[in-house]
Amino acid sequence: MNGTNVSSQVLERLSEEWDALTPEAQKAARYVLENPNDVGVSTVREIAEAAKVKPNTFVRMARQVGFEGYEDFRAPFREAIRQGAVSFPDRARWLQEIRKSGDLGGLYADMAEAALRNVEETFAGIDAETLKAAAEAIWSSRQVFTLGVGVNNANARNFTYLASTGMTQFHAIPRPGSTAIDDLAWAGKDDVLIAMTCRPYRSEVVEAVRIAREQGLTVIAISDSPASPIIRQAHHGFLAAVDTPQFFPSSVSTLALLETLLSFVIAVASDEIVERVETFHRRRHQLGIYLEEPE
Prior knowledge:
It is a single chain. Helices cover 57% and strands 8% of the residues. It is of the alpha/beta class and 295 residues long. It folds into three domains: 3-82, Arc Repressor Mutant, subunit A, CATH 1.10.10; 91-122, no CATH class; 125-285, Rossmann fold (3-Layer(aba) Sandwich). A five-stranded parallel β-sheet has the order 2-1-3-4-5, sandwiched between helices. The longest helix is centred in the middle third of the chain and has 20 residues, at 105-124. It is globular and about 70 Å long. Keywords: DNA-binding, Transcription, Transcription regulation.
């Protein structure tokens, strides 16, 4: 059994024993689960400082999950480093190892490879200035309508939800019981439509983009080909690589692109946006919407 598998077993054990750990030990365990690569290279004092707990907390945590102490706990992680397992990656070797891992190993490797390739291809075809121009159009607009149907409906609503934590002019369409064209009825030259569809292209999205252009909206389109009907009509067009071994197109690169676009909107926005987002989340904490974790 190689070091990677052993260290993974340690992480699984931490997760399984989570409820039995003290609140302070849970803070230590959380740091390990979120930063496993640090374990093999850090002394108990260094990792305790990073996790904001006392060194003895890591020792007690290690013992609570069946190890003699922190050094014993750290050994599998150090072995993983020695074998080069945590250097990410030699991707070809990593994917080859996945393919050997069982009946579904090949599918797992194909999905991982497609996701990584899609993100790389998407960002390789976009430059920062193009994103900035689209972000400035969004920030200076009166309203932003985000349109996605089918698999892209969730992508559009996720983008709108995140944007709405700091800005109020975002609307995911089509609204329940409505159509995209109806939702755009009173939109005009001061507004922006963000539309997304991939092959086979959804006719209602293509038609909504056409109507939006007629009404003077600025159109930002996300699709899978320069020949896509919504890319050809867009003021700002972005290509997302969506190939995947599964039946449906992948959303990985689309989500990554939308998250990046939103980060650019915040970057070009006024300083009040950061304060709005902080106020939004502070209110949620006050209302008990978030689970409060020990500090």
